[in-house]
Amino acid sequence: MSTLTKQTLSHLDWLEAEAIHILREVAGQCANPVLLFSGGKDSICLLRLAEKAFRPGRFPFPLMHIDTGHNYKEVTDFRDRRAAELGERLIVRSVEDSMARGTVVLKHAGESRNKHQSVTLLEAIEEFGFDACIGGARRDEEKARAKERIMSFRDEFGQWDPKNQRPELWNLYNARSHKGENIRAFPISNWTELDVWQYIQREQLELPSIYFAHTRPVVRKNGLLQPVTELTPAKDGDVVEDVRVRFRTVGDITCTAPVESDADTVEKILAETATTTITERGATRMDDQTSEASMEQRKKEGYF
Length: 304
Known about the structure:
Layout: H1 11-29, E1 33-36, H2 41-54, E2 63-67, H3 73-86, E3 90-94, H4 95-101, H5 117-128, E4 132-134, E5 151-154, E6 182-185, H6 193-203, E7 214-221, E8 224-227, E9 241-246, E10 259-260, H7 266-275, H8 280-284, H9 295-300
Parallel strand pairs: 1-2, 1-4, 2-3, 4-6
Antiparallel strand pairs: 5-6, 7-8, 7-9, 9-10
């Protein structure tokens, strides 16, 4: 008599299966979805999950990046190359386009454009008629993210109301929406930063070089390391140091800080991540240090 052996799945297998299920639910329920791809580590994982969900066919959605115009070149170059390698359509819309239209007005030339991405995102959703945006946000990133459903409903104004979200019992996801409304879908919402790095290691995913330790001029401000660049030059009185750093998260140069690190391999990053007690946004995002730029308020205004 044959003996049936129960296959033991690792926690990464379970997380991967859940994410693939969510991607297929979005593709099955939504008429015109899009996957947000910035070239960052979380969206790189989403691309691999989409490959597993839909290959050998083409993705049932294009890729899109809302670019502030102040992103690290290493990341945008990687973004373009990876999309070309996959043969998938990449749409790029910039905050600079919104500034030219007058829908984004900066308080001053040096203001961070990061929080204004919501305007450009909502304009892109309207331009292409997207009814769902798939992104790599995770609940462990920030307390407002932890309030999100897997399928996060946004009204006809692109607004998020944390008290008016749909129940998701027994892994049943409701992505239906009326014209003008939008769903933000988060397939890796239940992943942690450590899970992401473990998946990167298992899948041997390529990343932009700034995720790994390198030497960079920085200025220490408010407990963070501000990179010294053309956009963020050192000011009078600043002490510029050449420090060995890496980026835990990537975004607009004006608000994304690296952390001190000698981790120049995925294995070393895993060891660091396993012992850290500070979230990646808490350790690296200068725009999250003020109430004006709080994540929850920005999400209510349409931010991802």
